[in-house]
Design brief:
Blueprint (H helix, E strand, L loop, with lengths): L40 H10 L6 E5 L4 H11 L3 E5 L7 H18 L2 E4 L6 E5 L8
Parallel strand pairs: 1-2
Antiparallel strand pairs: 2-4, 3-4
Length: 134
């Protein structure tokens, strides 16, 4: 005799088994035909939307104005760029012009820029959909 035996009803009736609903068919008599499923345009579009975009973190050492074009291309492709301006430290007038052009280019493309080193001139540039908290 257990602790809960006194709580059980002595006249408990067995529960009758339920019948499956009439709407459920067990088996069809017609032969099964294999049908090729062709993906819809919506399925293809949904897969493309869900597919993550591959992005890169690239380092570009700026030594002349020609490197600015490469920075612009990489930003337009959605990549994050680490810009090293330390080779231009010996030419302060060129460094100032390049820095202004980078600043204007980033703002025109809708991105953001931030300095990441105290002792060296290194910047990080991010595209429009990535934000930098300062």
């Amino acid at each position: 005799m257990g602790l809960f035996d006194s709580l059980k009803k002595k006249d408990s009736k067995p529960v009758p088994k339920r019948k499956p609903p009439a709407a459920v068919k067990k088996e069809t008599s017609a032969p099964r035909r294999d049908i090729d499923v062709v993906p819809l345009e919506e399925d293809v579009l949904a897969k493309e939307l869900v597919k993550p975009q591959v992005r890169y973190l690239k380092k570009i050492v700026v030594t002349s104005y020609a490197d600015l074009e490469r920075i612009s291309e990489e930003l337009q492709n959605g990549n994050i760029i680490l810009v090293d301006l330390t080779p231009l430290e010996v030419k302060p007038e060129v460094l100032e012009k390049v820095a202004e052009q980078i600043k204007g280019m980033v703002s025109a493309l809708g991105g953001q820029a931030a300095k990441i080193c105290k002792h060296e001139i290194k910047l990080i540039l991010v595209p429009t959909d990535i934000k930098i908290t300062k």
